[in-house]
Structures are given as structure tokens and as C-alpha cells.
Amino acid sequence: MLRFGRVLFKEAGTGISKTLSEILVCPLSKQPLRVCEKTNSLISDSIGVSYPVVDGIPRLVPSNGKIIDDEEASNSNSAVDPDAVKNDHQRCSS
Amino acid sequence: MQPKDSLVDAVAENLLDRLEDCKRTFPTTLCMGGSLEAVRRLLRGRGGIEKLIMMDTSNDMVKLCKNAEMRMPNENIETSYVVGDEEFLPIKESSLDLVISCLGLHWTNDLPGAMIQARLALKPDGLFLAAILGGDTLKELRIACTVAQMEREGGISPRLSPLAQVRDAGNLLTRAGFMLPGVDVDEYTVRYKNPLELIEHLRAMGESNALIHRGKILNRETALATAAVYESMFAAEDGTVPATFQVIYMTGWREHPSQQKAKQRGSATISFKDIQKQFGQSDER
């Protein structure tokens, strides 16, 4: 892997660096976050909230968090059918 | 250089200078809120920072810093960007060597809470370094506003956000649980051609009153009266007006066994009597 002075190692999909993924936690519960590549977000399983990642920048202000209901949670876990993801799930491109 | 640039830069420079005062290096650093951009730009390799996390509540501010990174000298620093709130810090416990905040924390609603979270995010023996605006800031403007409002409206309402007093800063650090707290103050006087220029500067710095309770309408007449009072009370001979910015610098360390601290009460093994016996009934000189 090439590494220039300022380019970060990126995890596929969300574009979050290894550094960030190891250090970031949910701002409300302080529990670890799970990367969800499909929805481009960070999931806090402890409180059932997802935070968007926009242009590779995680938005971890509590007001950015979106409560996920059970169906969405199980969809984001499986690697299947993107159509099953609800429309009102957080849009990541703005 | 514009007045606004030099104040923020001077404060950032002062903060960063302190990194050279300790023999420590701070490989993993969080820079939060306030003048993010200035801190990054003026860093110049100080503090031995390897991983720098830049955080602000505003998406736009973070974006701005990320884009500016291309223009920064290559200091072999890995920078990451997060949108986050100091009062709800999204950082894992004991993961940072340094938390630095330049003119950002005076915006928080819960300053003690924010400081506690910063402390928890620090590794043992990690450093908290912050600059906030102090109570004397814009005292001229406060006075002018009050006088003008009393004259015009017969009452006063808060127009300037509340700011910490120097005497509170030490308490804030200890309440947050920091060890070896250090507080010092600097006053910067910025000169403006006229009071309205000051208001413009404040807006450019993003420092307009954030208090929810401020009177929604600053009556135009009152505003002009304020400017007039300001000028009459504080103007120099050449017509320029000064504005005071008081900056409080705070330092604190996360507890670590290696740090000196006072012994527990009741743990003394020698009494004063013994000391007196040792040195004899010495006379005062």
C-alpha cells in the first residue's frame, strides 16, 4: 500500500482511517462503534443509533444520530439486498 | 495582517509554545473547537505529534480544515477529521496524549463537563491545554452597552456571552480532576478605527453573542448609542478605540502515579517536636 505524508489508511467503504476507527466511540454511551459500509455510517449498538459519515468525515454530534429500528439493524448486519434498506435511513451524500 | 488574524494567531502560538516547555512528546493529539485552523497552521512540528485528530461541532469548519491540509507543510503528521461536540466527546477513554483547545471552550454550555470528558479521554500523564476568553474581555463594550441601554431602554439585558473569571479557572481544572493545574492570563488590546469595526471583527471571529437570552432586537438607536458611548469613553487621541481580549491559558495533567502529590492526612511519621529537637530551639533571623 502506498503511503504519502498525509494520506490515511482507509477502511474500504466509509473511508474512515484506522486511527479513527480505533479511537472513536459513541458520544452518548461512550461505547465502541461499528462501521456499516452499506449505509456509510457508524453504528452504536449500545443505544441503537447510527451516525453518518459524510465525505469520509464522521459526524458524531448527538443531534446527527439517527435511531435505527430493528429491521434496519438486521439489514445493516447482513450483506444482502440493498433494496431492503429503508428509504428514510440516513442519506450520506449531501 | 488583519486584526482578527493576529489575535487568534498570537493565542495559538502561545499555546503551542508551551509544548516545547515539557520534555514530553504527544504522539496522539486531539485538537478541538475554536481556532482549529490556526493551531494546525502554526504547529511547525512542535510536541512530537504523529496523529492529529481535528474536531469541531461545525461540518463546515472541519471541511475547511481538511481542505487546508493540502497546503500544510509535510510534517509527517497523520491528520483525521471528526465532527463532534466537546460536551459529548466521542473519544475512547485513555487514548490521547494531548488535548488542545484554542479559544473554543468558552462556547460550551457545560464547561466543567467538557473538561471532565477531555480528562477521561487522556491517557495517564496526558496533557490538557486550553485557551479561553476571560471575563475582562470586551469590558469596554460591556460598559458602553450597559450605559447606552440604561439611557435608551431603561434596563439592561445580557448582550455579551458570559465568560469565565480568572479565579474560576483554577477551580475548573481541579473540579475536572486534573493534576498540577496551571493558569495564566494574557491581555491583548486590539485597536480599531471605530467601534463598528470592532463589531465586524467579532462577527468575523464568530464570537457574536451566543446567549439564548440576549434581547433579540438590538435596537438600532441603542446600537448607535453604544458606538457613541464607546467612542466618548474609550477613544484615544487619534480616534481609534481599544478593545481588551483577556485570554486565560489553562493546563492540567491526567493523574499518574509518577506525579508528585501531597501525602495523605495521618500518614506522617515524624512530628514537629522531632524536627524541633533535631534543629534545636533555633532563633528567628
TrEMBL record, chain A:
It comes from Coffea arabica. This is Protein preY, mitochondrial. Residues 67-94 are annotated as: Disordered. The gene is LOC113701409. Residues 83-94 have a biased composition (Basic and acidic residues). Belongs to the PREY family. InterPro entries: Trm112-like (IPR005651). SUPFAM superfamilies: Trm112p-like.
UniProtKB/TrEMBL annotation, chain B:
GO terms for biological process: alkaloid metabolic process; methylation; mitochondrial respiratory chain complex I assembly. It comes from the Eukaryota. GO terms for cellular component: mitochondrion. GO terms for molecular function: S-adenosylmethionine-dependent methyltransferase activity. Pfam families: Methyltransf_11 (PF08241). InterPro entries: Malonyl-ACP_OMT (IPR050602), Methyltransf_11 (IPR013216), SAM-dependent_MTases_sf (IPR029063). Residues 37-129 form the Methyltransferase type domain. Keywords: Methyltransferase, Transferase. Homodimer. This is Methyltransferase At1g22800, mitochondrial isoform X2.
